[in-house]
Amino acid sequence: MSESPQSETQKDGAGLPEAATSWEPRIVAFICNWCTYTGADLAGTSRMKYPPYVRVIKIPCTGRFDPLFMIKAFERGADGVLVSGCHPGDCHYTAGNYNARRKYTVFKALLETLGMDMDRVWFSWISASEGGKWVDTIRKFTEVIQEKGPFREYREMIDVG
Amino acid sequence: MSDRTDKIREVARKWLADGTVEAVVGWEQGTYREKCSPVLVRKPEDADRLLFNDRCTNNLMTYLKRDPVRGMEKVGVVAKGCDIKSLIGLLQESQVEREKVMVLAVTCEGVKKDDGTVPIKCQACDVNTPTFYDEIVGEKVASNPDPEARFKDLEKLDAMTPAERNSFWREELDKCIRCYACRQACPLCICSRCIAEKNQPQWVETSPHPRGNFSWNLVRAYHLAGRCVECEACETACPVNIPLMLLNRAMARTVKGAFDYEAGKDPEVQPPLRTFNLDDDNSFIL
Question: Do B28 and B3 contact (CB within 8 A), yes or no?
C-alpha cells in the first residue's frame, strides 16, 4: 500500500485530516461546571483569543475527576491533559475540590513513579471571573506541548510487543 | 512453632465445638512440603488440619470478601499481624462487621517466600506481636524498631530519571498476562465488579498488550493508594514476578509524606482519600 495521507492519519490514530500533514497539539481539559467552565465562557464572551487546540470536557466538579479519564485521553491521542476547577474554598459542593486535591497528590506521585512525562499533566484552579487566567494557562500549556511535540509514546505502546 | 500450631488447633476446636464460629479460615500443609495452603475448617474434628509455620504466607483476610464467608453468621480467621492490618482496612471501609469475625492472632517471627528468602515486609515488620485480636497464641516477638526500612527498595527507583523509570516499568509491565491474580489475592480489592471488567465504557483495555497492562497496573495501584497495608499478597501471587510492591510502597510513602497516614493501624481513623485538610499541599496546582 502506498503512503497515502489517509493511511498515515489512521496509523497516527489522529482522526483529523490535517494531522496527516501538520501536527497540532491536542490538549484535553477536564474542567468543572461551576468555575473553570464559566471562566472559559467569560474568556469567550470577552472576545479573548487563545490557541484553539484545547478540547474542553465539562465535569460537574473536580471531585468527579477520575485518573482514568486522563489515561483514556492519552490512549485516544491527547498530547496534554489539564484538570481545572474552583479555587479551594469556592467549591459549589463545598469540598469536591479538596477531595480532588488529595487524589491529584496521589495520582501525580503514581505517574511520577511510573516515569510519565509530568509536563503534559497540569492542574489548576480557575474561577468564574478568571477568564484571563484561563487564556494564560491554555497559552502556556500549548507552548509547552508545542515544544515537546506529539505524545506518541503512550498511545503507540499498543503497537509494541 | 509447633506449640503455636497446637494452640491454634485447640482454640479453633473450642470455637467450632461451642458454636462461636461457623468456620475457621486457617493454613494447612500444602501439596509441597515447603508450602502451606489456605483451608476452611467447619467441623471441630477437622481442626487438626490447621497449622502455623514460616511458610504460612497467604493473607487469609482475602477470604472475608468472598461470598460464602460473607454469608456466614460468624467466622474465625487465623491471622498474623500483617494480615490483621488488612482486617483493619476492611473495618475502616465498613466491608466487614467486627462482630462477625473472630480473630485468632498468632505471633510471628516472619515468614519465608517459596525460594526461602525473607520478604521485605517481615524484615521491617512492626506487628510481630499483634495488638488487635480476640485471642492470641504464641510468645511475644519483638518488632523491627525501624519500619521505614521497607522503603529502602524505592531508592533505586528514585535514583532513575523519569525516562529510565518509564522504560523500567515498561519492561516489567510487559510481562503482565492479565490473570488478575494480584486483584484476587488482595484482601482490599473488594469491588464485586472490578473496573477492569466494565466494558460500557471500556475503561481498561483487556488485551495484555503494553498499553492495556500499563493502565491496568496503574489503576490497581491507584485504587489501593492509602489503603494498601503492604501484605505483599499481590506480589506473591503474581505468576510473572512483577515488582508490584514497588508501586504499592511508593504510594504508601507518598501518602505518609503528604497526609501523615499509615494504612492498617487504627480502625477508627478515616482513610486519607476519604477526607481532606484545608492546608493540604497546593504547590503543584496553578
Answer: no
pLDDT at A17 over 70: no
Q: What is the pLDDT of residue A4?
A: 45
Interface with A, mutate which of B170, B198, B204, B218 (most A CBs under 10 A): B218
Residue with cell 491536542: A26
CATH number, domain at A142? 3.40.50
Judge whether B70 and B98 are in contact, CB under 8 Å: no
Contacts with B157 from chain A: Cβ below 8 Å: 113
Give the range of the structural domain holding residue A145, as residue numbers without chain letter. Answer: 28-159
**B63 within some domain:** yes
Task: Give the pLDDT of residue B202.
Answer: 87
What confidence score (pLDDT) does residue B148 get? 84
Mean pLDDT computed over A67-80: 91
Residue B105 and residue B186 share a domain: no
Model pTM score: 0.86
Give this complex's ipTM: 0.87
Would you say residue B281 lies in a domain?
no
Domain that holds residue B217: 147-274
User: What pLDDT does A21 receive?
Assistant: 60
Is B219 close to A71, i.e. CB distance below 8 A? yes
Interface with chain B: mutation pick from A70, A90, A102, highest number of B CBs within 10 Å: A102
Mean pLDDT throughout B79-107? 92
Total structural domains within chain B: 2
d(CA B244, CA B183): 11
* DSSP state letters, A116-134: --GGGEEEEE--TT-HHHH
pLDDT tens across B142-179, in order? 888 888 888 888 899 889 999 999 999 998 998 999 99
- Report the C-alpha gap between B117 and A35 in whole angstroms: 54
Q: Say whether A155 and B258 touch across the interface (CB within 8 A).
A: no
Measured distance CA(A126)–CA(A152) in Å, rounded: 29
Nearest CA in chain A to B284: A123
Residue B279 inside a domain? The answer is no
Domain contains A7: no
Q: Which residue of A has its CA nearest to B166?
A: A115
